[in-house]
Every structure is written in structure tokens, then in C-alpha cells.
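Troubleshooting log. The previous structure file for this entry was overwritten by mistake, so regenerating from the original sequence record. Sequence copied from the archived sheet and checked twice against the printout by T.R.
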Amino acid sequence: MLFPVAGRYTIVSNFGTYEHPELSKVKVDNLGIDIEVPAGAKARAVYEGVVSSIFRLDGYHNIVIVRHGQYLTVYAGIDALTVKKGDKVKTGQTLGTVYSNQADDNRTRLHFEIRREKQKLNPAEWVR
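Regenerated output below.
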């Protein structure tokens, strides 16, 4: 599948449970991957599907969930949306602009997950 952003990116947090890089004795349980991109970067659908849900959650801005049969992709940290619930999306279609956090040096990060219904899968094994 396509990577959820085009152009330059850095994976700054991997899938799974691991020790926090700065806080000893603190474990991180990441259900996806976190991708840092330049300001203005667009999140894109990794595969064709239907937008099944869009909602806001503190710390994640807008979250878009796309259903691909039994699989779901989750895109968190979207600012300007270009899709709405029920839209059919094509592979590579823009879902919105990745949010830039001005309070944090304009850090621009997309949180991305892949699920087979409720089972969390490692996105790094699925996207290129």
C-alpha cells in the first residue's frame, strides 16, 4: 500500500510497546506509527475505501477512519479536511492537511494505524 504521506517524512515513533526515550521506567504503547512531515503536508488514503468516521479527539485534532473491507486505516492529526463521512476515496487521494502544532515549534505529525477489525497491525509492515 502507499505510504500515508508523500514526500519527505521521518517515522518518529514506532508501533508497539517500548521504553520512553527520555523518561526512565515509562513505557509507550503505540497502536500505530507517528510520522513527522514538513508543514503543509497532506495525508492521503493508502488504499481505496470509504470514509467510515471523522471525529475530533484532544491531542489528535481530526481523526479520519477509512474502511477497506475487513481492514481499517486511521489517520490522526488532520487539520483541513478534504473528505466527509461516506465519501468513497481512491488510493492516494488527499484526506486533509496534517496539523502543525504552533505551540510546539510547528511540529507536524500524522499518527497512522492499520487494523483488521479490532486487531491492531504494524503499519510499517504494510506501507511503502
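The two ends are 6 Å apart (CA to CA). Archived copy saved in two places this time.
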